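Try it yourself: sequence plus D-malate, in.
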Amino acid sequence: MFQYSCLNPISQIGIDRFDENYKKVDDMNAADAILVRSASMHDMELPENLCAVARAGAGYNNIPLDKCAEHGIVVFNTPGANANGVREMVISGMLLAARDIVGGIEWVKDNAEDDNISKTMEKAKKDFAGTELKDKKLGVIGLGAIGVLVSNVARHFGMEIYGVDPYLSVNNALSLSRDVTVLKTYEELYQICDYITVHVPYTSDTEGMLNKEAFDQMKDGVVILNFARDLLVNDKDMSEALKSGKVKRYVTDFPNPEVVKMPNVIATPHLGASTEESEDNCAVMAVEQIREYLENGNIINSVNFPNCNAGVCNTEGRITVAHKNIPKMLTQFTNVFSEVGINIDHMTNKSRGEYSYCVFDIDAASSKELYDKLNAINGVLKVRIVK
Ligand code: MLT
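Structure, out:
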């Protein structure tokens, strides 16, 4: 029996994917796995038993990835599961920025008592006129699941699309329309685009990437869209850029006390992925990834450990080891199997940065002795008996 805990409400359609071998517990200290949406885990003590954390969403800046990795806790996100919801918001944002639709709606409300409104509006409307998206250049920073969907649909508005992604995956490259021009540098994109939308995770490397230095390279009157994370944009520099007209409009899903006071901001309350469909998709994906990890030891869509798929275990036993990516670990592991007289039928080892993960399929059921010996090796973060 596995136990899981939810730090936020998680869509029932996802929870229903847990079978009778799973029990929900309120005490996270008793959980093998945690499901989370926006709750911050940075100041939490990580329970000894905890094996996995799944973020039902794309971003993961509310989870201490390295701290989890040091405890051998695998953190997952759900890339792509809410991408369509975000894509639709980005397109809405571009349309709202191209014409003053919001201003026009406000004008109609303010003139609701005017019996002559159908005439007066014909004069007033010039204040809300705008431009079309057709023939404009859209720059997409980050060609992950969301960036690809945004790029592919924006072509149909007759826009020219330019993308940059230093980490573009083969899968995403294959999903990207051939009409999208992939550039090598942000600088090239900044110089040519009329609309720029950002779709990268918030990390120490991307913090404040849209700042004065970046704005200075952009066209005058550029529109910036941020449906990724607030701290990707330097608010002080954005405020200056809006005042000077360098940035014509800033469309953001992350209002804060400074941003809401800036001129020419269109702000929504983090609605990007808040659709029924997105929440369901994220919950289903998060639960399936947790189950695959707890039941088979396979890692899909981790953000702190390598992905590792050893398939279903067809041997007598399977034991997994999360460990530091340092020399001589595998030699020490295989020595332990020799000492306890267990033969390894199959072994998969993957590394990602400072961390590695190993799945051993063995010809005997995993024993307590084997577990203890592997666990005692310096650099081992967590050992799990899967079978
Ligand atoms: C995401 O990270 O997937 C979106 O911002 C939505 C969310 O935070 O749940």
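One thing you can check immediately is this: The chain has a mean pLDDT of 97.
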